[in-house]
């Protein structure tokens, strides 16, 4: 209950975390009624939270049309499907992060889910959908209107320490985004005290890996096709120069560092 | 003495020149592999309204073309030479440890095959031998159609869905594969393919993959092309005695 309270009171900029992982606050678990505390059954209602800005706020770098489809259809579709899939199952009532970790289980689905009624259920596909939803929440809060510019403070220090310069980091980040063949994501992450750039395919994300995500760019084609068609390099450049919310990245870095200290 | 010296010098230079000509590698240009961009066998607006001209212009004119250009760039510095595109795909797949050339080579091949898998006024049903084989291997044409659509819809991320003739099993099957992988690498014979990368349908259908896949089945797929491929495939796979109609 304390966790839910913390989640519900948080704004998009200061993301809460548990146990070293960054949890976008949109991914609340059970929507429990205020009056009930112990007895009534809680049903999972993973919510589709809107980006923390109007859908036209990122024009002309990411059009309203793109947001309408990317968030309103793709992201929403996965949330709806997921809610349908887990309703009434043993995943019902968990938070999104718990479901992700539980069902992915480092790539081997847990026997818990393979009971007779659900033996055929594509558990791995389920976990992919979960990761996919998580990635999108993380994406909307990685960017903002009037974004871009340069990082500052501790983040800038670490960038210069681990990459040499901001330009070097952005160049590596862009390279990762461009060389991710097919669908996927490029990440700036924090691993064992160091900043790293990684890329992942399809829906895979750091939650099931060993680094804490700080920033992501979506390079599934639907993320840029309406605005840039095949011009992924232009999309990534614009993303870097005009959209990245360095405030959010800094905030996540601070939390990752605090988490690693308290762990 | 000087005369002898000059003659020796001239002989020496002549010999060097001869050696250079025999070696040939520094002066003459290196031979490298090169593949061309194949156009679809129809105008770019011929598949309207199911696949728009704009999509063809970008899908063929930018994506497919880029795969060809990038492949040729890679091959300029690669020992791979003298292979047909089919062979290049298989060699570059390298039994599951793909070489850098694989993605580009396979995508070039896949797109060539994709344009041929469609035609203006496509769709409907196959006829004769191919229809019989489909009914034999899937139970009925509607069964096959459903299997194809389901497989396409359950692909996660980028990929292709294929109707193939499996060499070992000697039957038709529907397979889905991610990114650039195609049935050549498994030694099977592709009959038709559908591109499920988002760039293939996003301009015309946005996120509505179901509508796209149905449009392909109903109005785009070229059963003529599939029949021709099937006929060629039967040169390599014995599907049994043909039913010769009795007059």
UniProtKB/TrEMBL annotation, chain A:
Alphabetical list of Gene3D superfamilies matching this protein: Fe,Mn superoxide dismutase (SOD) domain (1.10.287.990), Iron/manganese superoxide dismutase, C-terminal domain (3.55.40.20)
Keywords on record: Metal-binding, Oxidoreductase
Catalytic activity: 2 superoxide + 2 H(+) = H2O2 + O2
GO molecular function, one term: metal ion binding
Gene Ontology annotations for the cellular component aspect, listed alphabetically: chloroplast nucleoid
Keyword RNA-binding: no
SUPFAM superfamilies assigned to the protein according to its UniProt record, in alphabetical order: Fe,Mn superoxide dismutase (SOD), C-terminal domain, Fe,Mn superoxide dismutase (SOD), N-terminal domain
The organism's place on the tree of life at top rank: Eukaryota
Any one Pfam family match given in the protein's UniProt record, by short name: Sod_Fe_N
Cofactor(s) required, per the database record: Fe cation
EC number: 1.15.1.1
InterPro entries given in the database record: Mn/Fe_SOD, Mn/Fe_SOD_BS, Mn/Fe_SOD_C, Mn/Fe_SOD_N, Mn/Fe_SOD_N_sf, SOD_C_sf
Domain annotation Manganese/iron superoxide dismutase C-terminal: ranges: 152-252
Domain (Manganese/iron superoxide dismutase N-terminal) ranges: 47-121
Residues at which Mn(2+) binds: 70, 136, 218, 222
Main enzyme class: oxidoreductase
Family: Belongs to the iron/manganese superoxide dismutase family.
PANTHER family: SUPEROXIDE DISMUTASE, SUPEROXIDE DISMUTASE [FE] 2, CHLOROPLASTIC
Protein name: superoxide dismutase
Organism, scientific name: Spirodela intermedia (Intermediate duckweed)
Species classification: Eukaryota, Viridiplantae, Streptophyta, Embryophyta, Tracheophyta
From TrEMBL, chain B:
GO molecular function, one term: superoxide dismutase activity
Enzyme class: oxidoreductase
Location(s), subcellular: Plastid, Chloroplast
Residues holding Mn(2+): 59, 111, 195, 199
Major site of localization recorded for this protein: plastid
PROSITE patterns: SOD_MN
Cofactor: Fe cation
Top-level taxon: Eukaryota
Keywords for this protein: Chloroplast, Iron, Metal-binding, Oxidoreductase, Plastid, Signal, Transit peptide
Cross-referenced Pfam families: Sod_Fe_C (PF02777), Sod_Fe_N (PF00081)
Presence of the UniProt keyword Iron in the record: yes
Domain Manganese/iron superoxide dismutase C-terminal: 128-228
EC identifiers of the protein: 1.15.1.1
Gene Ontology annotations for the cellular component aspect, listed alphabetically: chloroplast nucleoid
Manganese/iron superoxide dismutase N-terminal domain boundaries: 35-118
Reactions mediated catalytically: 2 superoxide + 2 H(+) = H2O2 + O2
Signal peptide: 1-18
Described function: Destroys radicals which are normally produced within the cells and which are toxic to biological systems.
Family: Belongs to the iron/manganese superoxide dismutase family.
PANTHER family: SUPEROXIDE DISMUTASE, SUPEROXIDE DISMUTASE [FE] 3, CHLOROPLASTIC
Protein name: Superoxide dismutase
Species, as recorded: Spirodela intermedia (Intermediate duckweed)
